[in-house]
């Protein structure tokens, strides 16, 4: 994480491509979560907007820009107790892309596109990965974010 590791609030982005979730492996030399699988995230300042922060984080971690995303929307905010006894608020964001290939930033050494049900197979993931992904995908109502049909069929 490039922000303050001690920050109480995080923004975590669940990136989806063709129904698969993007997970990212931190490098062994990176700050926290070394060598662990996770979604991209960073500290969220008290005056930061979660969706704007997510766009910045996605660009730094994957090379994606807003025009590469078909969906970018806030999800639920989760309370999460860490191993060290700290409580964190995780502001979740859903992002959908049609871009399969990503340009990983310096913090990550690998990424995979996996089906939601396959997440458990990845050893060495952060403890909050699956709860965040589950909450974001459960909250997502595809009809509410579908593009507007500019040529409706009339009977």
Keywords:
3 helices, seven-stranded mixed beta sheet, 34% strand, Nucleoside Triphosphate Pyrophosphohydrolase, disordered C terminus, 155 residues, alpha+beta
Lay out the secondary structure:
Layout: E1 9-17, E2 20-26, E3 37-38, E4 40-43, H1 50-62, E5 69-81, E6 87-97, E7 108-114, H2 129-139, H3 142-145
Parallel strand pairs: 1-6
Antiparallel strand pairs: 1-2, 1-4, 2-3, 2-7, 5-6
Notes on the structure:
By secondary structure, the protein is of the alpha+beta class. It is built from three helices and seven strands; from the N terminus they run ββββαβββαα. Strands 1, 2, 3, 4, 5, 6 and 7 form a seven-stranded mixed beta sheet that branches. It is globular, with a radius of gyration of 16 Å. The model is unreliable at 1-5 and 143-155 (pLDDT under 50).
Q: Return the structural class.
A: alpha+beta
Question: What's the total number of strands?
Answer: 7
Largest sheet: 7 strands, mixed
Stretches with pLDDT under 50, minimum 5 residues? 1-5, 143-155
CATH superfamily: Nucleoside Triphosphate Pyrophosphohydrolase
| Percentage of β-strand residues | 25-35%
The N- to C-terminal Cα distance equals 53 Å
Reading the helices and strands in chain order gives EEEEHEEEHH
Please state the CA-atom Rg, rounded to the nearest Å: 16 Å
Second-tier CATH architecture = Alpha-Beta Complex
């Amino acid at each position: 994480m490039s922000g303050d590791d001690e920050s109480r609030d995080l923004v975590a982005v669940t990136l989806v491509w063709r129904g698969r979730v993007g997970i990212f492996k931190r490098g062994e030399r990176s700050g926290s979560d070394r060598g662990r699988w996770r979604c991209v995230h960073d500290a969220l300042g008290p005056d930061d907007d979660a969706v704007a922060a997510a766009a910045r984080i996605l660009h730094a971690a994957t090379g994606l820009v807003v025009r590469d995303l078909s969906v970018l929307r806030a999800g639920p905010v989760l309370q999460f107790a860490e191993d060290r006894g700290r409580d964190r608020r995780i502001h979740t964001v859903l992002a959908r892309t049609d871009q399969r290939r990503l340009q990983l930033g310096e913090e990550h050494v690998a990424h995979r596109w996996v089906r939601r049900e396959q997440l458990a197979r990845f050893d060495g993931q952060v403890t909050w990965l699956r709860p965040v992904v589950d909450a974001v995908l459960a909250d997502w109502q595809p009809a509410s974010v579908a593009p507007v049909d500019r040529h409706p069929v009339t009977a």
